[in-house]
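Team,

Forwarding the record for the chain on the shared tracking sheet. I've put the sequence and predicted structure together so nobody has to dig through attachments.
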Amino acid sequence: MNQNKIKYSPLNASERIDSLDVIRGIALLGILLMNINGMGLPFAYSDPTLAGGADGLNLKVWIVNNMLFEGTMRGLFTLLFGAGVILLTSRLEKSGAGIATADIYYRRTLWLLLFGIVNVYIFLWHGDILYPYAIFGLMLFPFRNASVKKLFLVAGILIILGIIWDVADYHSKLNLQKEVTEIQAIKGLENEITKAQEDKIKEWDKFTTKHTKEEVDELIEKMHQSYFTVLFDKVKGNQFMQTWLPYRLWVWDILSFMLIGMAFFKLRGFHGERSNRFYLIMLSVGYLIGLSINYFETKMLLGDNFHALTILKADQTYQIGRLFTTMGHIGLFMLFIKSGSLRFLQKSLAAVGKLALTNYLMHSIVTSVIFYGDGFSMFGMLQRYELYYIVAGLWIFQLIYSPIYLKYFLYGPAEWIWRSLTYGKSQQFLLRKATLSN
């Protein structure tokens, strides 16, 4: 009986890897740097000219984000998800859980899917990552015993396939531009074109036309209305985010990084056990390649005023820049952890990481209250740089409350619910109760 209890119990504090929690905490806080733009501004995540200001401090904020954080904090989070798969399944298999390992893993992943649905349709965050993580997490179990080489190989193939598709998308629109230019020349000479040619012009116009001020104002007005008005207005976009987008774009993005995270965990790179030289090489090579690519992409976008075709052109190298910059971040953060400096901050970051699910959902809840109509109706009302006052407030709160909370509780509320559902029974919640029972 006691043996079964060990087999089916969640990870306890002594089994946690502190460096994983610290990096997870950094990623959790860092992901808000990008999410806040989608939460608080209309249509302006990829194009700052549409809302929030595109000059002065606002533009500088966008540039810093695009250079350092676009896709990389999410990338860190995704790598850690992959690492967590190995941590969970290897622990269960070593304890003798056998086939129950698969049962627990898939139940855990399917319950995460439900958290993603709640985050989207209850907490109103259309940019949720829990749902796609669960979808692609379902594919990871067969890879748990794969070699590091095979994991990197499959991840590399996925990234290459994604790049090929991005290149094809760009050249498809580039060819459309050439066709439309020729059609317009014919129209100028003959003043008559076919319906098929008219359709080509309409397709190009639809692709290149930015959202108008009227459309921006209309969305702001809708987001300032009641909870249910906001909810129903988001349904169509949410369906797009949970159907077409994951299987067209995120499969290369998310699944590849999950596999890399599994490989890096097997290399014990997240454990802090590699040499300082190893992490310094990651930092140097990662930033040299990643930031160089990000710089040229950023320069290109700014130079062409975020033209739709230029955005597609930049997308061709996006995954490479994101991958290397993320690797640079890991090198930097692991050196920071290994240095032992700012231990108070590292402990707070680790606490934030241990409560990652609760803290992630908190971002959605708090920003929904701040931005939408039944709350403070601040959607579209702030400059881009002003959004980061909210980010700073959430960071400070979570860095302070997380370590205090964990003095009294084993898990965050969301983590406790998730574990209880996964293991099919109520888990211990109070730290004192757990200590006494041991």
